[in-house]
Write a structure and sequence with these properties.
Helices cover about 65% and strands about 0% of the residues. The relative contact order is 0.07. The chain is elongated, with a radius of gyration of 20 Å. It is built from 3 helices and no strands. It is mostly helical. The mean pLDDT is about 85.
Length: about 50
């Protein structure tokens, strides 16, 4: 019983593993398709062209 007392809930383990997988998936996609991520707007202010 004392072994189960210190373990986190299964939902927490699943959530953390999903976040890690999504970050790894992002880096793999960025390495395979860099053109996709160059067109994403970052919210930076652009100078106005006259």
């Amino acid at each position: 019983m004392s072994d189960l007392k210190n373990t986190p809930p299964k939902g927490v383990i699943i959530a953390v593993s999903v976040i890690i997988l999504l970050v790894l998936f992002y880096f793999v996609m960025e390495a395979m398709f860099p053109q996709l991520f160059q067109n994403i707007s970052t919210g930076d202010a652009m100078p106005v062209q006259e």
